Amino acid sequence: MPRVGSDARFFVQVGRAAQRLGIAVRIEAQARVEMQEVARDRIHEIRHEESCSVFRVTPPNRDDIAAWVCLSWNKLTTTTIIGGFSRVGVLGDTHVADFDTERSEAIVEELAEELRCLGALGKPVHSEHDIRSDSDEN
After folding, report:
1. Do 82 and 91 form a contact (C-beta atoms < 8 A)?
2. Domain check: are 73 and 103 in the same one?
3. Percent helix, strand, coil in the chain (nearest 5)?
């Protein structure tokens, strides 16, 4: 008889464990449902907080792009630049020439004056006038 009592206790314990497991599964399922409801409510709130605001990307202007390019080039060493061009086969003469700034400026001024006399120079074009984008109209 002692065997029957211990078997009965075992099955009672197994039954209780199964009940606890069943309860735990139901609690977990209910918790998931409630978390999803909370998440749905929060998403709904966020969507309706600023329903009229639109995110607009503003394209960079030419001055910004030119500044980025200059900044990038200035971070490179002369050796790196020459090495890069030589690897792709577009390297020209790498000797540094003596540069006469005063003479060059005089030549440029002389050429500009000749072009003015010929009527070949019009009004100057500024970066904000030569290209328009949709963002300029807003």
Report:
1. yes
2. yes
3. 70, 0, 30
Number of H helices, E strands in the chain: 5, 0
Query: pTM of the predicted model, to two decimals?
Result: 0.29
Q: Are residues 51 and 72 in the same domain?
A: no
pLDDT in tens, 21-78: 888 889 899 988 999 999 999 888 887 776 666 777 888 999 999 999 999 989 999 8
Q: Residue 18 domain-assigned?
A: yes
Q: How far is CA 125 from CA 33, 66, 102, 117, in A?
A: 64, 16, 26, 19
Query: Do residues 61 and 127 touch, judged by C-beta distance below 8 A?
Result: yes
Judgement on whether residues 23 and 68 belong to the same structural domain of the protein: no
CA dihedral 37→41→43→48, nearest 10 degrees, is 160
**Do 45 and 67 share a structural domain?**
no
- The tokens for 15 are 């039954």
